């Protein structure tokens, strides 16, 4: 059975995500697992993609929606239709050494044919999830395998035991926009790609996948993030530098503060303190909402903001540059020569001044 209609409970949950809860028996009947996505549809026909959870306190045949979900499908809908989205449990393969640094993960042909090359892996035992781009594995005889490396296993909370249950689903996102919004999105994407290329030449950056966690209560009202000091050093960051956090084709720029390693347990569910604290990035609820992050434990991509560092160093050079321009205009009379000298010398001075920043990540 791929869908069923349920009576909606009048009271709703206040969790800050799109979520619906069913009795465990109903979940089992539909073949649903905690932390997976389903499509919920109200009587008006309005639909939303939401996360499913089993709750033994809910009567069979009834469903309890979150307030955020009801805002999408309608508060006045007495019933809700739950539609199962395709998923399956996959086996893990060990990638070849030469494939570890690839931007995509290798998977068997049958998985790519069924789910496409943009997928999401979910550990249903803890809700840790990450989006991946897939490439077809060279061995055509293998079936139902995804070749993830050790770091990706740590991000998903996998220990290599037989009890691990790793599900694969097609990567979901916002509905396809109309022509104009899509065109503007493509132009904006091209502009950001150009800026990243320039930033990579002048400043350079590393990027890293980190697992989203809660942030300290006194940080919640501020747009910032916290990471481990060692991770900040790896990314070439100092406190109050900016990072770009991206998820599902959305990104935000946030200032960085260090995690208080002596009190990491306040914001992280710790099993291995060293590993869990290094995988962590704390993000406020408002930013998680802006990025469309479905739950704590979602993996996001993080890199330092080259635009911020470029502006930071240009500001430091403002007085020396003004003095240089004054010298050029004093010594050179030809306006064309003046312009050429300014256009040639300025980038060279900026490039040289950023050598220390480039050295942090290269």
Key terms for this structure?
Barwin-like endoglucanases, 362 residues, 27% strand, 4 domains, 6-stranded mixed beta barrel, single chain, 7-stranded mixed sheet, alpha/beta
What does this structure look like?
This protein is of the alpha/beta class. The protein folds into four domains: 3-85, Barwin-like endoglucanases (Beta Barrel), CATH 2.40.40; 88-170, Beta Barrel (Barwin-like endoglucanases); 179-307, Barwin-like endoglucanases (Beta Barrel), CATH 2.40.40.20; 317-359. Helix content is 33%, strand content 27%. It has twelve helices and 19 strands. It has helices at 24-30, 67-73, 109-115, 150-155, 179-202, 229-234, 273-278, 285-291, 306-316, 318-331, 335-353, 355-359, and strands at 3-8, 19-22, 37-42, 47-54, 62-65, 79-84, 87-89, 91-93, 105-107, 118-123, 129-136, 145-147, 166-170, 207-213, 225-227, 242-247, 250-258, 280-282, 299-304. Strands 7-13-10-11-9-12-8 form a seven-stranded mixed sheet. Strands 1-5-2-4-3-6 form a six-stranded mixed beta barrel. Strand 10 (118-123) and strand 11 (129-136) form a beta hairpin. Helix 10 packs antiparallel against helix 11 (335-353). The radius of gyration is 25 Å and the shape is elongated. The chain starts with a strand and ends with a helix. The model has no long low-confidence stretch (mean pLDDT 87).
């Amino acid at each position: 059975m791929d869908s069923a209609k349920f009576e909606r409970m009048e009271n709703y949950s206040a969790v800050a995500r799109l979520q619906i809860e069913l009795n465990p028996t109903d979940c089992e009947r539909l073949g649903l697992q905690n932390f997976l996505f389903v499509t919920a549809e109200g009587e008006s026909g309005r639909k939303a993609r939401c996360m499913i959870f089993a709750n033994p306190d809910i009567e069979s045949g009834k469903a309890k929606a979150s307030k955020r979900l009801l805002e999408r499908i309608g508060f006045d809908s007495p019933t809700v239709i739950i539609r199962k989205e395709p998923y399956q449990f996959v086996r893990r393969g060990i990638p070849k050494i030469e494939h570890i640094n690839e931007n995509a993960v290798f998977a068997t042909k049958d998985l790519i044919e069924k789910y496409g090359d943009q997928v999401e892996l979910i550990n249903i035992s803890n809700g840790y999830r990450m989006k991946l781009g897939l490439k077809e594995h060279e061995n055509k005889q293998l079936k139902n395998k995804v070749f993830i490396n050790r770091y990706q296993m740590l991000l998903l909370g996998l220990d290599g035991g037989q009890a691990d249950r790793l599900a694969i689903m097609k990567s979901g996102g916002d509905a396809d926009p109309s022509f104009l919004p899509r065109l503007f999105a493509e132009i904006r994407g091209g502009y950001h790609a150009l800026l990243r290329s320039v930033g990579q030449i002048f400043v350079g950056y590393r990027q890293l996948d980190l697992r989203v966690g809660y942030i300290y209560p006194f940080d919640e009202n501020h747009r910032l993030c916290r990471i481990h000091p060692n991770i900040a050093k790896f990314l070439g960051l100092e406190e109050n530098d900016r990072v770009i956090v991206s998820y599902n084709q959305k990104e935000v720029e946030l200032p960085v503060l260090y995690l208080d390693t002596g009190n990491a347990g306040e914001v992280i569910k710790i099993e291995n303190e060293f590993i869990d604290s290094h995988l962590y990035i704390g993000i406020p609820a408002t930013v998680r909402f802006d990025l469309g992050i479905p739950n704590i434990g979602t993996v996001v991509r993080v890199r330092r903001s080259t635009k911020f560092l470029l502006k930071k160093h240009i500001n430091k050079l403002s007085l020396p540059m003004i003095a240089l321009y004054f010298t050029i205009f004093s010594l050179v009379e030809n306006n064309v020569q003046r312009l050429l000298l300014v256009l040639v010398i300025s980038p060279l001075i900026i490039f040289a001044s950023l050598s220390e920043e480039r050295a942090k990540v290269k």
